[in-house]
Specification:
single chain, 56% helix, seven-stranded mixed beta sheet
Length: 785
């Protein structure tokens, strides 16, 4: 095998100039090399156990036998499914879902040219929103460990006796033990949120070394100066090493400073009482000032720098990356010493300062989302795109949902722990009032979502009835089968739900913003939970408030359990993995630009892999290449094609099927996959053909303007292939939807058309006569390259 590879890399160009390569890239859910190559005997050509290129065993040394491949290509399969799947422990990444969602919002910027400052402001607002999510997560851990456990339960005799493992922290049951003072209880409990921050830092560092630190192909200085270059084709787009390292340092410091404030602020408040110790009071002011200065430094680091895409930024801010977390750690340790100092008359009563902290975070997040919506509207208005989701406001809407997810998960954990520690509600004050209010708005939000789903279901059924006539027209001369017609029509109608997702997201996000604002106002004005705040009002209002409060609490707990259970099942069950695979793969496709603790970007490994493979093939053989991508694989294929040098890109033909390039990515990420970007890709590659079905809920046409549209998109494929029973198909053909595109004869026809262009010499003209392609054009083929 190694000898074959050496011959492939060292051999002359002329000897192998006629050899063509077909590089297959699978989609969501993954597959095996044997299934992709239709041969049980496969061998790994290059790569490792995570992602690799495979060939059939008989094709392993194809480069040394070019005469055997004069009339057919060498098939290769790039298998990348291990980048997004693994054992059951990988389901823990779902706990970082708010971080992933806010990172997605960063890439949903509307397309705009020349508004550099506005574009930078858009990215800055999302980096700040990501920072608030980190603070929120750590604050939730502080609420559980410091407030509910160490402050309230350990300080209450009945609760401490109920949980014997807290006996050494209770002033009563431990008879005034060393750990029983409030400051030392808080210092000990601070180990939990500090360990959580350390775990996030470690995971981010480990994945940073595995993904962001892999250097992509260097294009040299020429590519930097091309203003027409698509964003995904910039040399440094898939190399976020410097930014992620900076953000990791800032977010780690923010987490440690949050814990330090939770420990030091109660002690400082006690020391400021009349007659308190003057020395400790002065030390408290100094320490709080240092924590405030550290917080300003963290915000400054987040604001200072965004992504560097126009060049490979190999430098690393080593002093900042090391010193900022170490300085925060030093302040954290000093705060523990200060908080744990002996204060004989100090007792724990009521809650810690959780209401003000969570209220401030919620207010800042709401203001950031509103400002982000204004910036996104200005960008969209400068260059309107009729296909952009929510008229360019997709980023703010998704950022709002990320903040809501963070709030719900934080409130859910706190509420569940409070119920576990004090199920009767007789011992503890409970979590902050705002978290209960936020849980109480979940039932009305679900009512809004259910009403929208009912409207969409009604519209889908009406569309399905209208599609029945179209189904019968697509199969003329065949005996009608009402049941089969209904199934096909319903599948087509349900596939259109993808196109209505922006409306669902927009209404849900707007309702979340309004209900969240109402919860914040209600908590601040009443300082009571909804059930208590409604006492003395109308019976209907009081009953609704109490019902929303109780139901919201249980819904959060149930949702959290289902969330983790479903996530674990998704990594064990292939069918469940495909169900959520498209959302997860879209989320982890993008580099970590807004949050360093988000799940890692698999494309920072996959795109350079494909780019290197295509570039080395075209450079070594002088031949051309067809890269064939299904579903998410088509997105990777397009991104890798953009990364090629122009001379290599002209020797690449692109075949996409079931592709979300325009239907999902083009609408939700218009700055990177909008009409201009896709049109430039069509112009720069040798040829591009796209296959789609009306029953496919993910893939769709590219919708390029003018002659480019029919040149790329083939007319929708028939699905099912046969309506009824025929001599060739005596059994009913299945409705394929998003799968098995290669089973359609149109796939072989389009592949043959592209391979016919793979001949040595200069690339074929983009508009050629029918004599060049040996494969005749089908009746429904609406154009050529």
């Amino acid at each position: 095998m190694e000898e074959a590879q050496e011959r492939a890399g060292a051999g002359g160009t002329d000897a192998r100039s006629g050899t063509a390569l077909e590089l297959l890239v699978h989609g969501v859910g993954g597959t095996t090399p044997a299934e992709m190559l239709d041969d049980p005997r496969t061998v790994r050509i290059t790569g490792d156990h995570v992602a690799a290129v495979f060939r059939r065993t008989e094709d392993a040394d194809a480069e040394s036998r070019p005469e055997d491949y004069r009339g057919r290509p060498v098939p290769e399969a790039y298998v990348w499914c291990n980048l997004t799947s693994g054992n059951g422990t990988r389901a823990l990444w779902l706990l970082l879902l708010p971080f992933m969602v806010v990172n997605i919002a960063h890439w949903m910027r509307p397309a705009a040219h020349g508004r550099i400052r506005t574009i930078r402001l858009y990215g800055l607002l999302l980096r700040l929103a990501g920072l608030t999510l980190t603070v929120l997560l750590v604050a939730a851990a502080c609420e559980v460990a410091l407030d509910l456990v160490a402050w309230q339960c350990a300080g209450t005799r009945a609760c401490a006796e109920r949980h014997s493992w807290l006996g050494f922290l209770s002033p009563v049951t431990s008879d005034g033990g060393w750990w029983s003072t409030p400051g030392r209880r808080l210092a000990l409990a601070a180990a939990v949120p500090a360990a959580l921050t350390g775990l996030l830092w470690y995971l981010s560092l480990r994945t940073w070394r595995a993904y962001e630190s892999r250097q992509p192909m260097d294009h040299g200085a020429d590519a930097e100066e091309d203003p027409r270059r698509a964003a995904l084709g910039r040399p440094g787009f898939w190399y976020g090493r410097r930014l992620v390292a900076r953000l990791r340092a800032a977010h780690t410091a923010a987490g440690l400073l949050t814990v330090a404030v939770a420990v030091g602020l109660p002690a400082a408040r006690f020391d400021r009482r009349p007659g308190g110790p003057a020395l400790l009071d002065a030390l408290g002011w100094v320490l709080l000032g240092a924590l405030a200065a550290g917080s300003v430094a963290v915000v400054a680091v987040v604001c200072r720098r965004g992504r560097s895409e126009r060049r490979l930024d190999r430098t690393l801010d080593e002093h900042l990356v090391r010193r900022l977390p170490l300085a925060a750690l030093l302040l954290f340790v000093l705060t523990l010493l200060y908080g744990g100092w002996t204060r004989p008359s100090w007792t724990s009563e009521g809650r810690l300062a959780g209401d003000a902290a969570f209220g401030g975070i919620a207010l800042v997040q709401g203001l950031l989302v509103i400002a982000l919506a204004v910036v996104a509207h200005l960008l969209h208005r400068s260059r309107p795109d009729a296909r952009a989701a929510i008229r360019g406001l997709g980023g703010p809407a998704v950022a709002m949902l990320a903040c809501a997810l963070g709030g719900v998960m934080s409130g859910g954990v706190a509420q569940r722990v409070a119920d576990w520690m004090d199920g009767t509600g007789a011992f503890l004050v409970g979590p902050p009032v705002l978290l209960t209010w936020q849980a109480s708005v979940i039932p009305p939000l679900l009512v809004v979502v259910l009403l929208m789903c009912a409207v969409l279901a009604r519209h889908t059924l009406r569309l399905a009835r209208a599609e029945r006539d179209a189904v019968e027209r697509d199969h003329p001369g065949e005996t009608g089968d009402p049941g089969r017609t209904r199934r096909i029509a319903l599948t087509r109608a349900m596939a259109t739900l993808t196109d209505r997702a922006p409306v669902l997201v927009a209404i849900t996000s707007a309702a979340t913003l309004l209900l969240g604002a109402g919860a914040l106002v209600g908590a601040l004005m009443t300082e009571k939970v909804p059930g208590e705040a409604a006492r003395g009002t109308y019976a209907v209002v009081q009953g609704a408030a109490q019902t929303a409060q109780d139901l919201g609490s249980w819904l959060i707990g149930l949702g959290f359990i289902l969330f983790v259970t479903w996530g674990r099942r998704a990594y064990k069950d292939a069918s469940a993995r495909r169900t959520i695979g498209i959302l997860w793969d879209v989320g982890t496709f993008w580099p970590r630009a807004a949050h360093p603790f988000a799940p890692p970007c698999y494309a920072e490994r996959a795109v350079p892999d494909l780019t290197w493979r295509m570039a080395t093939w075209t450079r070594a053989t002088g031949g051309r290449l067809v890269i064939s991508g299904h579903s998410q694989g088509s997105v990777l294929a397009a991104a890798a094609s953009w990364q090629l040098e122009p001379s290599a890109r002209k020797r690449v033909a692109l075949l996409t099927y079931g592709s979300p390039l325009e239907r999902l990515y083009g609408r939700w990420f218009p700055a990177h996959f909008g009409p201009d970007a896709l049109a430039s890709l069509h112009e720069e590659v040798d040829c591009w053909r796209n296959l789609h079905r009306r029953t496919d809920p993910i893939g769709g046409p590219m919708r390029l303007p003018g002659d480019a549209g029919p040149a790329v998109d083939r007319a929708p494929l028939k699905d099912p292939l046969t309506y009824g029973r025929t001599e060739l198909h005596p059994l009913p053909a299945p409705i394929l939807g998003h799968s098995d595109y290669q089973a359609d004869p149109a796939f072989a026809e389009e592949r043959g058309r592209l391979l016919a262009r793979l001949r040595p010499g200069v690339p074929a003209p983009r508009h050629t006569g029918g004599a060049e392609a040996p494969v005749p054009a089908a009746d429904d083929a609406t154009g050529d390259c």
